[in-house]
Amino acid sequence: MTKSGTKSSVTSTGGKSRSPVRSAGRSAGSSRSGVRGKTNGRNTTIVSRDSPRKGKTDWARVDALTDEDIAEAVANDPDAVPIDIDWSDAVLVMPPRKKAISIRLDEDVLDFFKREGEGYQRRMNAVLRSYMQQKSKPKKRA
Which has more pLDDT, 54 or 106? Predict the structure, then answer.
């Protein structure tokens, strides 16, 4: 890591980087063997610990807005639909914990669920839950 004053360059020079953003600008596994320590101007981000990057928001303009300006902007925004939901009686519902198990399935059953794409274990769980709920219902007398 190269240091210059209060700014540090997030560029690996062979050792371990101590910067909190050491991998900024590069994806995992982007280091190629034999190229370490060499920079070609790409994947280098200058970060100052004393003053973080400035965003593009004009905070002075936001601070100058009055309540009337905000109300008018909301009224003119087609995506700002008022929601009349009372959340005061809301209850936090946590999903049941999952338990990791080893299970033997017929190959064609597993292939069927996997073919449906990502989330096949969640779908298998839903099918089993539906079966369980149907079996748990009280039987009707004729």
Answer: 106
